[in-house]
Every structure is written in C-alpha cells, then in structure tokens.
C-alpha cells in the first residue's frame, strides 16, 4: 500500500491504483507521499513522481510583454496620480471682474437722518456724540459692496468706526 496525505487527510492506495491516479493528473505538488522508509514527503521531492505532477507552463512572450506593460503602466499611472496630488496648487485668484468702488460721499441730509434715527449715540459703544463729531458708518462696508442706502448707515463715534475698519458690523463687536 502507498500512503499519501492531502489537506490533512490520509489515504492508502495499492501501488497500481496510485500510479493510475497520479497519471490521471490528480497528484498535486503539495500532496505528501509516504516513502519506502515510512516518512511523508512532498510529492514534488520525488524525482520518479515528477513526471506525474502538473507542469508549470512557461508564459509566452506575448504574456510576458503584456504583464511587463501592465506593471510599467501601473507605475506610470501611480506616478501621474502622485504628481497631481503632490503638485502645489496655485492660490485662488481674485475675481477678474472689478468691483465698482462706492466712492460717493454720504449726503448731508442722510447724515442728519441717521444721527436723529440713532438718537445721537454710537451704535457700537453707546457714547453720546455731538453732531459735528459723528462718523457715519456703513453696516456692510463699502469694501464689501455696501451702499449708501439708509438701511446700511449707522452713527458711530470716531474710535469705534476707525477700529471697525473694513469689517462688517456683524464681524465687529466692541
């Protein structure tokens, strides 16, 4: 009897049956076969069984070229992706459309209306301001597209208006 082991299971076959079974292509290189000394060894270590083991096919030249092309193409693609990801991005450019600067002065009647509407006090700190010392502030600054509409004008003291700068009223808290 010839013993062999596959996937942890042991089998026993008559020598003739084993050879037929091996010739039919059922023997795997990872199968263990029991030698005349009783030891189990990989079937691939027996030179007399090598004829019955499945032959490893050599890849054709075309297969080799295709595999090499895929490997090189994969490397190229990886480098392209890495280059795109690692390339410094240009800073976002400001809009090329020029904003029209609101440079018209606040008319005197609007200054008086805003002063009276706000009770002669700074809308930011609450200080009382003499009419000759008021600053008429834009809630949405001119730099941010604010207009001279009455709803956008506020009474402010000089300190608050200068501290506010180009920020909008919501961004400025005193």
Q: In summary, what is this structure?
A:
By secondary structure, this protein is of the alpha+beta class. The protein has helices at 15-23, 61-86, 108-117, 158-164; strands at 2-6, 9-13, 32-34, 40-42, 135-138, 153-156. Among the domains are: 2-52, no CATH class; 108-164, Orthogonal Bundle (DNA Binding (I), subunit A), CATH 1.10.30.50.
The strands making up the biggest β-sheet line up spatially as 2-1-3-4
Output the number of helix runs.
4
The second-level CATH architecture of the domain at 108-164 is: Orthogonal Bundle
Q: What low-confidence regions span 5 or more consecutive residues with pLDDT below 50? A: none
**Could you say what the CATH topology of the domain at 108-164 is called?**
DNA Binding (I), subunit A
Overall, the morphology is: rod-shaped
Q: Give the amount of beta strand, in percent.
A: 5-15%
List the helices and strands and how they pair.
Layout: E1 2-6, E2 9-13, H1 15-23, E3 32-34, E4 40-42, H2 61-86, H3 108-117, E5 135-138, E6 153-156, H4 158-164
Antiparallel strand pairs: 1-2, 1-3, 3-4, 5-6
Comma- or semicolon-separated keywords:
174 residues, alpha+beta, 4-stranded antiparallel sheet, 4 helices, two-stranded antiparallel ribbon, DNA Binding (I), subunit A
Would you mind describing this structure in some detail?
Helices cover 30% and strands 14% of the residues. The chain has 174 residues and is α+β, with helices and mostly antiparallel strands. Among the domains are: 2-52, no CATH class; 108-164, DNA Binding (I), subunit A (Orthogonal Bundle). A hairpin with a 5-residue loop joins strand 3 (32-34) and strand 4.
